[in-house]
Amino acid sequence: MDTDNGSAAPVYDLVVRGRRILVSAGIAAREVGIRDGRVVAIEPLGNGLSAAEVIELADDEVMIPGLVDTHVHVNEPGRTEWEGFESATRAAAAGGVTTLVDMPLNSIPPTVDVGALRVKRAAAAPKAYIDVGFWGGAVPGNEADLRSLHDEGVFGFKCFLLHSGVDEFPPLSADEMEADMAELASFDSLMIVHAEDSWAIDHAPQPDGARYAGFLASRPRGAENLAIAEVIERARWTGVRAHVLHLSSSDALPMIASARRDGVRLTVETCPHYLTLLAEEIPDGATAFKCCPPIREASNRELLWQGLQAGVIDSIVSDHSPSTIDLKDIENGDFGVAWGGVASLQLGLSLIWTEAKRRGIGLQQVVEWMATKPAQIAGMSHKGRIALDYDADFAIFAPERAQVVDVHALYHRNPVSPYDGRAVAGVVTGTWVRGRRVDFESPHGRLLRRGEA
Q1: pLDDT of residue 196
Q2: Any idea what the Cα angle at residue 66 is, between residues 62 and 67, rounded to 5°?
Q3: CATH classification of the domain holding 26
Q4: What are the transmembrane regions (predicted)?
């Protein structure tokens, strides 16, 4: 990738030229003209668009839309020692993510009313290296706050059907979820659900110390299947738009497909850890791999990939849920007490590309799952594509290059990740937000509101 300054009078602020630019029609030789942070021209390569700055792609580089990660736990304020907006957004940018949507829990206060949202936005504003939006929370007793949070610009509302892991964000019963769904349907908002059934988990075996097999048995597929069935039926009755978070149980795919054929307004995401890791390969005591729902077996992983390719699963997002090293209980390796969450915000594109490439799946499809679809689900009309009048959010990606993950070289706050030492395909060589390169020194991301992104 070379950069030069044009000598002719510039027509654009920035032009990107290359033989491999991923536009809506696919990867093609194009020139992209950017002005005032938006894409305003896409022309065949050789048209000679002029700009104050010109980027010439190397032969092994591809210009791709910036990824949109709609499932990130930033945890600031209140638990900034776990993660914060500065470290999280720098990690995101290093991985080609140009927009993230922050989850409403693990921060103190949680984002369950307008006052808490304003506290969160104030914490994020001076530290965002990329664009940041916010989910609201649906918890017992805050039904009256949902409309005001919507009006303040949250992209939708998250609820749990079992204990969330933090006491200040309690779960909803199925009936409470239905009542909130009916409220959200009245203004066409989105309910996103951590779908594991509390009763099923209470009746499963308890985690067995350092044994991964014991932890896996404690979070059975049936817990997900029961909860997803509940989400489907309550969404059917209320007409709400509903979204299943971090699907790990392939058993649920047939009922999801059936519900959508029936007209239930349902979307589904999964995560890199469910598509790249295998329960059979997780060592006992390796609590960096602990997440909820858990990483399951090889056969399950292959069915999730089939669900993606069939369109039953819509998107891939990180569910970046970090914590301190102490909370991960790295020293003792006890799955029963370790915090559940995988830290992978910077690595998602390379992780998924590595597996997709092995399966003969093209880069365009990967970007559809990781940029275009998440933006659509969140209702962002100017993100997730390189297209006219879209935000000039993009990354330069070298898919044929390789790297080995070094957890100490990642930008997220705590050096814990199950991917440490893993060889992956693809390297992000630069990231631009609204036509401006992220330099990791001066944050210039914006805070997004629903309807404005």
Answers
A1: 98
A2: 115
A3: 2.30.40.10
A4: none
